[in-house]
């Protein structure tokens, strides 16, 4: 039986204490871009050109925006978790469009709280997001999503993987990766090994989890392909690589979130359009 999907927008960037604000405008822009794909249905099917086959058009129901509270991070975190949990408990697959990456953790928490069994997390990001807390960012920020997710009862580092990290980060975060046994596949390894080999490694990593949530920070993509992000880190993945990862891994995942799309930094909606294609591709191949 095919799976049904709930699309949730979270127009919030109150946790963006670093980088550029503006991700609150992403859900609207991504929805506009998504309409371009949704019109390609014929007799309930859509041609998946990259896969070389006709596939069922996924059932994506737009649930509107989460009830965010501007300038109130904790209230927005709670509302995001409740929205995601509600979709999962209804037997549907949540598709979350941020908003900045402080929404990573509440998406995983809502997913975690609505399922039984172990939870794995796939995390695509240029950054570690393993900051514990700081005076400037607090404990729940766009730099701490993976750290907070690993504190959830049934999320284990042995079933989690980070992909696309690069450039520079805190030595203490690297030490934490070693301490907890978190698999991290830097962008340079993706370029050296290729998408198929890395996807195989990722599938092996999350195979032991009962449920898997995938959080995709758009800054994992090189800014040449996705300029509309909260921060720019050179040397990232290409849009082609990202779409191939989604095609290969979506069937193993039960939830998907795209964060940090920033229309204020974008060029002619390049990044919003890529985010829409990632979401739609996920739904097509996960259905």
Strand content: 15-25%
* Beta strands, count: 10
CATH topology name, in short, is Arginase, Chain A
Classify the secondary structure makeup into a structural class.
Answer: alpha/beta
Model regions low in confidence, pLDDT < 50 over at least 5 residues: none
- The radius of gyration computed from the alpha-carbon positions, rounded to a whole number of angstroms, is 17 Å
What is the CATH level 1 assignment?
Alpha Beta
- Could you give a short account of the major beta sheet? 8 strands, parallel
Descriptive tags:
globular; Arginase, Chain A; alpha/beta; eight-stranded parallel β-sheet; two-stranded antiparallel sheet; 9 helices
Write a brief caption for the model.
Helix content is about 35%, strand content about 20%. By secondary structure, the chain is an alpha/beta fold. The chain has one domain (about 5-285): Arginase, Chain A (3-Layer(aba) Sandwich).
């Amino acid at each position: 039986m095919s799976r049904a999907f709930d699309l949730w927008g979270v127009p919030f960037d109150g946790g963006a204490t670093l980088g550029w604000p503006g991700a609150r405008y992403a859900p609207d822009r991504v929805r506009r871009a998504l309409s371009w794909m949704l019109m390609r249905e014929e007799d309930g099917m859509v041609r998946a050109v990259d896969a070389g086959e006709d596939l069922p058009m996924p059932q994506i129901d737009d649930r509107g925006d989460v009830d965010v509270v501007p300038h109130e991070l904790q209230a927005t975190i709670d509302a995001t978790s409740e929205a995601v949990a509600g979709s999962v408990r209804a037997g549907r697959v949540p598709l979350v469009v941020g908003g900045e990456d402080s929404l990573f953790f509440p998406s995983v928490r809502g997913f975690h709280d609505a399922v039984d069994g172990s939870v794995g997390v796939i995390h695509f990001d240029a950054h570690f997001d393993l900051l514990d807390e700081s005076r400037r960012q607090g404990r729940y920020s766009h730099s701490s999503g993976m750290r907070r997710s690993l504190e959830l009862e049934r999320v284990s580092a042995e079933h989690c993987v980070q992909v696309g990290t690069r450039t520079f980060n805190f030595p203490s975060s690297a030490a934490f990766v070693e301490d907890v046994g978190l698999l991290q596949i830097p962008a340079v390894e993706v370029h050296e090994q290729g998408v198929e080999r890395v996807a195989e490694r990722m599938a092996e990593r999350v195979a032991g989890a009962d449920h898997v949530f995938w959080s995709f920070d758009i800054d994992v993509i090189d800014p040449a392909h996705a300029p509309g992000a909260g921060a720019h880190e050179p040397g990232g993945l290409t849009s082609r690589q990202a779409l191939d990862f989604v095609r290969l891994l979506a069937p193993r995942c039960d939830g998907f979130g795209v964060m940090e799309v920033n229309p204020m930094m974008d060029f002619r909606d390049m990044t919003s359009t890529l985010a829409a294609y990632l979401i739609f591709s996920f739904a097509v191949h996960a259905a």
